[in-house]
């Protein structure tokens, strides 16, 4: 294809191929190349199609022709640069994915650690609450036992003839002993029991071989 002024009217849509026009439009059959002369930005290399060989000239020389090749074709340096940019983009995309996945892994690990810590705290609070409850129950039990011991001590101290006990009525009270009326086969109906062991009527009475068994 020739210079811009020479070939601007070529009808590409109707099948006129620029390569066929280029030979006839260029009197010298000299065609521009896309390669600039290093150090001279206004000068470019040219090729001689009929006799072969290369040369160079100012870019504003309208005597040279152009020949269309592939649309969007990149120069060697430009192609390498584009390839390098694409490679860099792919590497950057892979790195972004790696960084994103690493961030998600760290986030999941942090969430698991936080959940584990929350569960540990909840378990510890439950354990402390259980210990407090058991301690309170034990305290209440000891309080009740102390009350019961005092009640029994007062009961034993005040025993008189005719008072009811866990083993029947008192027949006689003498110092540290009380005699109660309680029928036991082969052991009679009257039995001496230590005052400190006798119980109130709401307890049961138990003798083994004629001997009173305290609780």
Rg over CA atoms, rounded to whole Å, is: 59 Å
Structural class: alpha+beta
Overall body shape: rod-shaped
The total count of helices amounts to 3
Strand content: 15-25%
Distance between the termini: 126 Å
Share of residues in helices: 40-55%
- Count of all domains: 3
**What is the average of the pLDDT values?**
81
Strand segment tally: 9
- The low-pLDDT segments are 1-27
Write up what this structure looks like.
The protein is an alpha+beta fold. It has 3 domains: 4-72, no CATH class; 74-158; 164-212, no CATH class. It is built from 3 helices and 9 strands; from the N terminus they run ααβββαββββββ. The termini are far apart.
How is this fold's topology laid out?
Layout: H1 4-7, H2 18-25, E1 30-37, E2 40-48, E3 54-58, H3 76-157, E4 164-165, E5 168-174, E6 177-184, E7 188-194, E8 207-208, E9 211-212
Antiparallel strand pairs: 1-2, 2-3, 4-5, 5-6, 6-7, 8-9
Keywords:
single chain; 215 residues; alpha+beta; 4-stranded antiparallel sheet; 3-stranded antiparallel sheet; 3 helices; 9 strands; 44% helix
Quick description:
With 215 residues, this protein is α+β, with helices and mostly antiparallel strands.
């Amino acid at each position: 294809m020739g210079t811009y002024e020479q070939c601007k009217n070529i009808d590409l849509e109707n099948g006129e191929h620029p390569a066929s026009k280029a030979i006839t439009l260029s009197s010298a059959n000299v065609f521009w190349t896309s390669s600039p002369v290093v150090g001279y930005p206004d000068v470019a290399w040219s090729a001689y199609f009929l006799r072969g060989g290369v040369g160079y000239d100012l870019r504003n020389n309208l005597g040279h022709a152009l020949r269309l090749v592939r649309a969007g074709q990149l120069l060697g340096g430009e192609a390498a640069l584009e390839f390098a940019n694409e490679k860099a983009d792919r590497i950057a995309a892979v790195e972004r994915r790696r960084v994103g996945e690493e961030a998600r892994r760290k986030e999941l690990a942090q969430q698991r650690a936080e959940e584990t810590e929350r569960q540990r705290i909840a378990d510890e609070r439950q354990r402390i609450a259980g210990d407090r409850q058991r301690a309170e129950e034990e305290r209440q039990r000891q309080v009740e036992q102390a009350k019961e011991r005092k009640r029994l001590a007062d009961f034993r101290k005040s025993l008189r003839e005719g008072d009811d006990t866990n083993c029947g009525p008192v027949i006689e009270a003498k110092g540290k002993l009380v005699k109660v009326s309680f029928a036991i086969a082969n052991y009679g109906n009257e039995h001496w029991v230590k005052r400190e062991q006798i119980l109130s009527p709401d307890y049961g009475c138990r003798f083994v071989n004629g001997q009173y068994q305290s609780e």
